[in-house]
Amino acid sequence: MNLGKVVGTVVSTRKEPSLDGIRFLLVRLVGTDGKETGNFVVAADAMGAGPGEYVLTAAGSSARQTTVTQNRPVDAVIMAIVDTWEIGGKTLYVKD
Amino acid sequence: MNLGKVVGTVVSTRKEPSLDGIRFLLVRLVGTDGKETGNFVVAADAMGAGPGEYVLTAAGSSARQTTVTQNRPVDAVIMAIVDTWEIGGKTLYVKD
Amino acid sequence: MNLGKVVGTVVSTRKEPSLDGIRFLLVRLVGTDGKETGNFVVAADAMGAGPGEYVLTAAGSSARQTTVTQNRPVDAVIMAIVDTWEIGGKTLYVKD
Amino acid sequence: MNLGKVVGTVVSTRKEPSLDGIRFLLVRLVGTDGKETGNFVVAADAMGAGPGEYVLTAAGSSARQTTVTQNRPVDAVIMAIVDTWEIGGKTLYVKD
Amino acid sequence: MNLGKVVGTVVSTRKEPSLDGIRFLLVRLVGTDGKETGNFVVAADAMGAGPGEYVLTAAGSSARQTTVTQNRPVDAVIMAIVDTWEIGGKTLYVKD
To answer: Is E73 in contact with D83 (Cβ distance < 8 A)?
Structure first.
């Protein structure tokens, strides 16, 4: 999975019908220090994630293994909202 | 998904028979500012997208989850045409 | 899909038995100007492509969606030979 | 597979229900010399891996081929803990 | 597929049970001139490949389409040992 931060929303009305009701979020990838790397992905939101939240995204066919995304043409999904992460016992991020 | 802009068309008559009737579009990837990044993908068109439109493309097996592309040897599909996107509440793109 | 140009052949006699009879071609990736980018892929040939031809290649599980490659351990396939492509109405390549 | 080193943990309580009980580890990718490359992946832990251990990670749909990860929205899994590796008969790493 | 050269072995005793008996090889990716590019992959060996041999590797779900790797959590497999390759009729490599 990638570690990312929700920063925005992409809206589409003309889309494959099976995508109706799925929210597309702009997620900037971050490093282990939480800083944005410059890369981003548009991910289907299976979690009700909001702006500023750190999330995990799964790509490829794994992005279709959630209730929201099953059998749908999406190749990235937010499947977890991150509470905290640590490296070597040192906490690098804690959700507010 | 990637965010991209339709810029052109690729035409092929000698192709896997299951691809008959599928349109292949040249899609340049763009950043969140809408500017082209220099990378591009050739995507099957499931949406009737036209030149200049901003689109979402799905890759891999997810590219085969549309009515048009099912069971066909395509690894990228346009599955949504973008109306607008925003970051931090600021609209960065609105379709004409 | 990637846009590429067939430049050579890879020959293997010791291979997974299901691959017997499949031709492996060296395909250099090209930009929208038709120039080689320096990257290449070895792709199964589902089309009878020849040297110098511009082709589309599909990757991943989509590479197994042709008659020639079904259920075989190949992750890239030539599934179309390109006749022409255009950007903004300007033809950038026409097959001889 | 990628060769990596477990360095930390990512904790999430709000996640796709099928992910309950799966541990997410921060894995830094390493070169054949064992040095970190700067890239990392968040991987589901199918092995009970601990910090400092060198591991193999599998990506994509292959990440769902373990008992722990089957049918779950994860695109990277630790499926082996590395004992040793060698190049040209020279051992480059031995687990303590 | 990628073109690579077998350079070493990775040994693991603690691994997903379905992986018992599968050999993991270190494969350095090479260019069309046969020179190593600096990148490498750890691939399951479906061919009995040995050090110094040039091989093709398949990635993703395609890596599970060999008898050895079916339904197993591996995302790269050696599915062919290369005898020779040529570009523009000029042979660039011949196996000893």
So the answer is: no
Domain extent, residue C40, equals: 2-94
Cβ pair D75:A59 closer than 8 A? yes
Q: Are A52 and A4 in contact (CB under 8 A)?
A: no
CB neighbours of residue C85 within 10 Å: 23
Total count of domains within chain C: 1
In this complex, the residue of A12, A42, A63 whose CB is nearest that of residue B83 is: A12
Is the interface score ipTM higher than 0.95?
Answer: yes
Helix (H) or strand (E) holding A44: strand A36-45
Query: Span D54-63, mean pLDDT?
Result: 98
DSSP code of residue A62: G
Residue B78 belongs to domain with CATH number: 2.40.50.220
Chain C hits for B74, Cβ within 8 Å:
1, 58, 62, 65, 79
Give the H or E element holding residue A26: strand A24-30
Question: Which chain E residues are within 8 Å of D58, Cβ to Cβ?
Answer: 73-75
Residue pLDDT, tens place only, A17-57: 999 999 999 999 999 999 999 999 999 999 999 999 999 99
